[in-house]
Amino acid sequence: MLDILLLIVGVINIFVIFTLLWGLKNYLLEYKNAIDSQSVRQELLIVKKELSKKIEDLKSLLSFKESCFIGIGGGGGNIISHIKEIDAKHRFIYINSDLQALSVKKSNHKILLQKDTNDNLGCGGQVQCAQRLVDDRAKKRVEKMIKGYKDIYIIASLGGGVGSGATPNVVRFLQDIGKDVYLSVTLPFEYEGKKRMDVAKTALEELQSIIKHINVFDNNEVLKEITDEGIDATFKKISKNMYLDLLKNR
Ligand SMILES: Nc1nc2c(ncn2[C@@H]2O[C@H](COP(=O)(O)OP(=O)(O)OP(=O)(O)O)[C@@H](O)[C@H]2O)c(=O)[nH]1
Ligand SMILES: [Mg+2]
Question: What is the rounded CA–CA span in Å between residue 153 and residue 70?
Answer without folding.
Answer: 6
